Each structure stands twice: as structure tokens, then as C-alpha cells.
């Protein structure tokens, strides 16, 4: 799925044309083939993103969007979401959102477009969840540049609200789904 078809207001290709690194993304939520799992794990390994105690197969099952370079058709980023129960927010269930975009492909607005696409998909998907639904998405912001330069209480595009910091100093951001109750 290209961003143009899912969100007409987002024209990623036009915004990236000046940089020569056009990208597209595809939603692979709960549609990961064994080949795609191997490709994702290979991406993490090639970019030294595998940490001790990290279950790459389990995390691969949480991939929502795969972002690819149009020119090379290789993975240059992805988003994941796993269900967590967050005690600090009244022990509610959230989708723990994670994303990575390789530095050479990071361009203004791309991260926001990817989080919005993931957020909107998860919100629609969650409406069908009967047992233990989530009330929103939660993210720990590890990128120091985002922590220093994206200081809005609520990020305008994604509507992710700052709710504090964890023990490691990461900013915690939350988006509540429409109609969520605590």
C-alpha cells in the first residue's frame, strides 16, 4: 500500500523526490511469511539492532509497516506494535509502538507519516478486538534529537501526548483511541 492510497494528504514520494530516496510502505500486520520474517531479522542484524534477550522472531510477529526504498526495494525502516499493560497509566493495555528509519532515509515528515499510518491502522484494528482491547498507543522516545527538539506537549501531526519520563530518561508519549476510557 502506498501512502497516497491510504492518506491522500500524504505525498511521501513528492516530499522525498528532492533527496533522491523515494520510499513506500506496506502493511504486513499478521501477514508475515517466513521469507519476510527472515528479511526483517536480517535487516535488524545488518544494522546491529539485535540486543541480548531480544526475541527477533517474536518481534517480527509485531511488525505493522515495512518501509522500503523504491529504487532498491530493500527494507529501510519499519514499525512494530506489541500489546503491553502499562501500570503507570492505570494498568491499561496499549500497543507499544516502535519505529526505525535508517538515517540516510530520514526526511522531514516521514516519521510523522509512518506513525499516523500505524496509529490509524491500529485504532481501526482494535475496534474488532473483543478480549482485552487496547485504549491507545504508547511509545518510549529514545532518539535524543526528538527529545531535545520535539518538545510540544502534544505532537501536532500524530497527537502523541507527553506523559513523563521513564527511569532511563526516555520521553513517554501516548495517543488515546477515540472513545477510550481509563
Distance between the termini: 34 Å
CATH third-tier fold name: Aminopeptidase
Envelope shape = globular
Helix content percent band: 25-40%
Number of strands: 7
Mean pLDDT: 87
Number of domains: 1
Over all CA atoms, what is the radius of gyration? 16 Å
Would you write up a description of this structure?
- By secondary structure, the protein is of the alpha+beta class.
- The protein has a single domain (3-176), classed as Gcn5-related N-acetyltransferase (GNAT) (Aminopeptidase), CATH 3.40.630.
- The protein has six helices and seven strands.
- It has helices at 3-6, 12-17, 34-46, 56-60, 110-126, 144-149, and strands at residues 23-27, 63-69, 75-86, 92-101, 136-141, 161-165, 171-176.
- A seven-stranded mixed β-sheet has the order 1-2-3-4-5-7-6, sandwiched between helices.
- The N and C termini lie far apart (34 Å).
Overview in brief:
The protein has one domain (3-176): Gcn5-related N-acetyltransferase (GNAT) (Aminopeptidase), CATH 3.40.630. 28% of the residues lie in helices and 28% in strands.
Amino acid at each position: 500500500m502506498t501512502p497516497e492510497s491510504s492518506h491522500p494528504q500524504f505525498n511521501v514520494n513528492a516530499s522525498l523526490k528532492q533527496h533522491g530516496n523515494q520510499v513506500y510502505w506496506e502493511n504486513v500486520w499478521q501477514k508475515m511469511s517466513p521469507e519476510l520474517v527472515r528479511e526483517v531479522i536480517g535487516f535488524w542484524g545488518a544494522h546491529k539492532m539485535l540486543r541480548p534477550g531480544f526475541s527477533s522472531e517474536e518481534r517480527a510477529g509485531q511488525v505493522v509497516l515495512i518501509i522500503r526504498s523504491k529504487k532498491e526495494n530493500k527494507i529501510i525502516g519499519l514499525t512494530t506494535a506489541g500489546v503491553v499493560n502499562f501500570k503507570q497509566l492505570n494498568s491499561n493495555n496499549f500497543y507499544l509502538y516502535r519505529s526505525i528509519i535508517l538515517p540516510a532515509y530520514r526526511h522531514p515528515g516521514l516519521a510523522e507519516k509512518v506513525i499516523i499510518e500505524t496509529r490509524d491502522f491500529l485504532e481501526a484494528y482494535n475496534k474488532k478486538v473483543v478480549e482485552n482491547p487496547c485504549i491507545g498507543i504508547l511509545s518510549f522516545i529514545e532518539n535524543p534529537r526528538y527529545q531535545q527538539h520535539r518538545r510540544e506537549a502534544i505532537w501536532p501531526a500524530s497527537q502523541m501526548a507527553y506523559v513523563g519520563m521513564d527511569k532511563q530518561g526516555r520521553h513517554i508519549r501516548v495517543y488515546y483511541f477515540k472513545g477510550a476510557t481509563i
